[in-house]
Amino acid sequence: MGDQPPDIVEVTSIIYYTGYIISLVALSLAVIVFVYFKDLRCLRNTIHANLFITYILSALMWMTILTLQLSSNSSSTSCVIFVTLLHYFTLTNFFWMLVEGLYLYMLVVETFSGDNLRFNMYAAIGWGGPAVCVVLWAIAKGIAISGQDRAATLEIECSWMRESVVDWIFQGPVCVVLIINLVFLIRIMWVLITKLRSANTAESRQYRKASKALLVLIPLLGITYLVVLAAPAEGVVSDIFAIARALLLSTQGFSVSLFYCFLNSEVRLALRHRLERWRDERNIRLGQIRQRSRRPLTYNKRESCASSATTTTLLGPPAVSHGGNTARGSNGTLHLYSSGVPRAISPLMQNLEENSV
Question: How far is CA 54 from the centre of its chain?
Answer without folding.
Answer: 9
